[in-house]
Amino acid sequence: MQDTLAKAAAVRLVIFDVDGVLTDGSLFFSDRGEEFKIFNARDGHGLKMLQRSGVEVAILSGRRSAAVQTRMQALGIRHVHQGLEDKGPAFEALITELGIGADQVAYAGDDVIDLPVMCRVGLAIAVSDAHPLVRQHAHWQTTLPGGRGAAREVCELIMEAQGTLQPAMAGYISR
C-alpha cells in the first residue's frame, strides 16, 4: 500500500473511463434509440472534491454519448474525449497540454481497451469488477465495482495520499 500511496501522491491528472468505471457498464436504450446511463451521485461528489483539491480530471471513452457530455459538464470536467477507438493519442495530447509526465497520471479502467494507457501511467487502477487482465496490470484495485462507488474510492485514495482528504472532510463537519 505504501507504494500505491507514493504513486498517488505524485498524481496531477486522473483519467476515468466511463462505461464500467463511472457507470456499471449497462447500456439502456429507449424504443427511439435514445441512450441512457446511470451515474452514482457519490462518485460525482468525489470527482468534484478531487478537482477542488487541485487535481485535474479527464474522461477518455470509447463510446460517444450525449449523457456523458451532460454529466461531465455538470461536474465541471473540462477534458472530455469520447468516441476513441485508440485512447493513446488523446492521452498524449492531454499530458502535453497540461505539461505533465505520464508518471503524474492515474488512470481508472475496467476493460482491455484501457490497457495501452494504463500500462503507461504512474498509477494504473482497476475497478473491482474489471476484466482479469486489467486487474493483473493495475497497481491498485478498488473494493467497489464500477458505477457503484469505485470512482469515489479513487478520488479519496489520491486525496489521502496528497493530504487533502482530511481537510476536505473536516470542512463538512465544522459548518
Task: Outline the structure in words.
It is built from eight helices and eight strands; from the N terminus they run αβββαβαβαβαβαβαα. It has 175 residues and is an alpha/beta fold. The strands form two sheets. Strands 5-4-1-6-7-8 form a six-stranded parallel sheet, sandwiched between helices. A two-stranded antiparallel ribbon has the order 2-3. β6, α5 and β7 form a beta-alpha-beta unit. α1 packs across α7 and α2 runs parallel beside α7. The chain is globular and about 45 Å long. The termini are far apart. The mean pLDDT is 96.
Order of strands across the widest beta sheet?
5-4-1-6-7-8
What distance separates the N and C termini? Answer: 33 Å
Number of separate strands: 8
Task: Name the shape in a single word.
Answer: globular
Give Rg in angstroms. Answer: 15 Å
Query: What fraction of residues sit in β-strands?
Result: 15-25%
Helical coverage, percent range: 40-55%
**Largest beta-sheet details:** 6 strands, parallel
Structural class: alpha/beta
How many DSSP helices? 8
The overall pLDDT, averaged over residues, is: 96
In the predicted model, the low-confidence regions spanning at least 5 consecutive residues are: none
Helix-strand topology string: HEEEHEHEHEHEHEHH
Keywords:
175 residues, alpha/beta, 8 strands, 40% helix, 15% strand, globular
Topology summary:
Layout: H1 2-9, E1 13-16, E2 28-29, E3 35-36, H2 41-52, E4 56-60, H3 66-74, E5 79-81, H4 88-98, E6 105-109, H5 115-118, E7 123-126, H6 132-136, E8 140-141, H7 150-161, H8 165-173
Parallel strand pairs: 1-4, 1-6, 4-5, 6-7, 7-8
Antiparallel strand pairs: 2-3
Helix pairs in contact: 1-7, 2-7
